[in-house]
Design goal:
- This is Transcriptional activator PmfR.
- It comes from Pseudomonas reidholzensis.
- InterPro entries: CdaR-like_regulators, PucR_C-HTH_dom, PucR_C-HTH_sf, PucR_dom.
- Helix 4 packs parallel to helix 7, helix 5 packs antiparallel against helix 7 and helix 14 packs across helix 15.
- The chain is elongated.
- The chain is 47% helix and 15% strand.
- It is built from 16 helices and 14 strands.
- The N and C termini lie far apart (73 Å).
- By secondary structure, it is α/β, with parallel strands linked by helices.
- The protein has four domains: 108 residues, Udp-n-acetylmuramoylalanyl-d-glutamate--2,6- Diaminopimelate Ligase, Chain: A, domain 1, CATH 3.40.1390; 124 residues, Beta-Lactamase (2-Layer Sandwich), CATH 3.30.450; 116 residues, 2-Layer Sandwich (Alpha-Beta Plaits), CATH 3.30.70.260; 88 residues, PucR C-terminal helix-turn-helix domain (Arc Repressor Mutant, subunit A, Orthogonal Bundle).
- It has a five-stranded mixed beta sheet with strand order 1-5-4-3-2. A five-stranded mixed beta sheet has the order 11-12-10-13-14.
Length: 495
């Protein structure tokens, strides 16, 4: 417990009584200092107790009021006057002003030396320091036990118990819990932090009107901060220790997450390219907790503005999946279909889901199923299963066999021409249609002269037998490109 003015009053050996200002009697004392100057507020600060023989107290009533006001504004904890010493005989104005401000004024018996008061505060501070040292020892004992065993939520709870305080780990951008399972910031602290003009979490103190909290960003992870409130032992030093322990745990979790992502990406690459035998694929999938009987492939197109956002979110949401990114395409193997809703919410975009994998060697087919399902997603229907793909995009193929036939009939000859001649007519066609047949924009994206683009488009029309000057030809070629994406056979890719 912190030492307060009330503790001095309650100590019979100090023979001190309260004249006025009982409201501030429970304020914590940082130190006690003797000062006989006319303006002690220049030398004392928050939490200090001013001890005086009364020599510096003015005799004029208005000056006595100003004397107390200056002390209160400097956040001095209280004023202790030695009894029967050199204070003015009439200090009623001082007492009245102190009563208005809730500023404690004490008087101490003549026989009690000021050093006894100082020693009492020093002894209490020593006891508090001993408690703080024991708290630090408990923190690092919790770190030793908790790292890798308790999980982040369990470690935060244990650290909070070690210092008898409330701890909240949160994302400074959204004020949401940093990880699923952590306690959310209470509403009053969300309002206090949300009202800040500039959010800075290097190290700060905030108030909700009744309570005080310390806020600090974790080392090397500025987007993650901790808010600590309550507890007599809590201060910046203790908070630094807590932040260091949590930063170590987060770095460990991040390292483990990156290792699992790497292993998952390698395994997905192996099964999609069929580098493994069925027994080997089954063994590795089971080892990474993705049994083929229930596992599904999920496909999403990533936002180009934040292509790596999903890695951070997977870690925060504690979703156990195998993932592989290729360009803007993210392939994820989930152990159970039930995880798909949380995954889509995390990614914030449409996702297509294959039928259950069933066997490791069926991964390429499952990927094509997920592509077809993704093609049928809409803003109102962001999750589509291959088995339940309906006709929101009725112009697209309804199954993989139909997708292969569709693109083969319309642009199959164009694909063959690119393969045989090393040309880029498929890519040129895609860019031209995506840019609504704008010659200027397409030329800039392809980085070619307009006449070169005109030549390529004419070759496309010659080879496919379809004109890009009429609606029928445009529609047929565009749907064929979408069908090629859905089927996504090895030979059906942009050259």
């Amino acid at each position: 417990m912190s030492f307060s003015i009330q503790d001095i009053i309650d100590n019979p050996a100090l023979r001190t009584r309260l004249l006025t200002g009982a409201q501030g009697a429970l304020s914590a004392l940082r130190w006690a200092h003797v000062c006989e100057l006319a303006d002690p507020s220049e030398w004392l600060g928050e939490g200090d107790l001013l001890m005086t023989t009364g020599m510096g107290i003015p005799r004029d009533a208005e000056q006595q009021r100003a004397y107390v006001i200056r002390l209160s504004e400097a956040r001095v904890a209280g004023l202790m006057i030695g009894e029967n010493m050199q204070a003015p005989d009439d200090i009623r104005a001082l007492q009245d002003q102190a009563s208005l401000l809730g500023f404690p004024v004490l008087t101490t018996h003549y026989s009690v030396p000021f050093s006894a008061v100082t020693k009492a505060i020093l002894d209490a501070r020593q006891q508090t320091e001993d408690q703080r040292r024991r708290a630090v020892v408990r923190l690092y004992e919790s770190a030793r036990i908790g790292l890798g065993h308790l999980g982040l939520s369990g470690l935060v709870s244990r650290l909070a118990a070690d210092v008898s305080a409330e701890l909240y780990l949160f994302d400074v951008r959204s004020l949401a819990p940093w990880e699923k399972g952590l306690a959310a910031l209470p509403e009053q602290w969300c309002k206090v932090l949300g009202a800040r003009a500039r959010l800075t979490y290097d190290l700060s103190r905030c108030h909700d009107g009744e309570h005080e909290a310390l806020v600090m960003a974790l080392p090397a992870l500025p987007e993650c901060a901790i808010l600590a409130t309550g507890g007599q032992l809590l201060d910046y030093g203790i908070l630094h220790h807590i932040a260091s322990v949590l930063a170590i745990e987060l770095e460990r979790v991040q390292g483990e997450h990156e290792r699992m992502l790497r292993l998952g990406s390698e395994l997905l690459d192996d099964v999609l390219n069929q580098r493994l035998s069925e027994p080997a694929a089954l063994a590795r999938l089971l080892q990474l907790a993705c049994p083929p009987a229930t596992a599904c492939l999920v496909l999403a197109k990533l936002d180009q503005a934040a292509p790596d956002h999903w890695q951070h979110e997977l870690s925060r949401q504690n979703l156990k999946v195998l993932a592989r990114q290729a360009g803007d395409e993210l392939v994820i193997l989930i152990a159970d279909h039930a995880a798909s809703a949380a995954l889509q919410s995390m990614l914030g975009c449409g996702v297509g889901i294959s039928a259950p994998l069933g066997a490791g060697l069926r991964a390429p087919e499952a990927l094509r199923e997920a592509r077809l399902a993704l093609a049928h997603t809409t803003p109102a229907r962001p999750i589509v299963d291959y088995a339940n793909a309906l006709d929101e995009a009725f112009w697209l193929p309804s199954d993989l066999a139909q997708a292969r036939r569709m693109y083969g009939r319309v642009i199959g000859s164009l694909i063959d021409y690119d393969v045989q001649n090393g040309s880029q007519l498929i890519h040129t066609l895609r860019v031209f249609l995506e840019q609504n047949r704008s010659w200027q924009k397409s030329s800039q994206i392809l980085n070619v002269h307009k006449q070169t683009l005109v030549y390529r488009i004419r070759r496309v029309e010659e080879i496919t037998g379809r004109s890009l000057d009429d609606t029928e030809g445009v529609v047929a070629l565009w749907i064929a490109l979408r069908a090629m994406d859905i089927a996504a056979d090895g030979q059906a890719s942009d050259c």
